[in-house]
Amino acid sequence: MNVLHITRRFYPFVGGVEKYIYEISKRLVKRGIDCRVLTLNYDLFNKKKKLNQYGEIEGIKIFRIPGFGHYKKPVPLKIPLCLFKWADIVHIHDLRFLYETTLFLKSFFNYKIIYSTHGFLLHTKDIKAIKSLMIPHYYKSTINRFIENTICVSKQDYNYFEAQNFKNICLIENGIDFEKFNRITRKPQVGRFLYFGRIDTNKGLDLLFKAISLMEDGDWHLDIIGDGFPHLLAQLKKMTHELNISKKITWHGFVKEDGLFQFISRAQICLLPSTYEGFGFTLLEAMAGGCVCVANIIPAYKDIIKDSQNGFLTDFKDPHKAVLRIKEIIKLPLEKVETIGNNAHAKAKNYDWEEKVKQILGGYKLWTKNLNLPE
Question: Whole-prediction pTM value?
Answer without folding.
Answer: 0.77
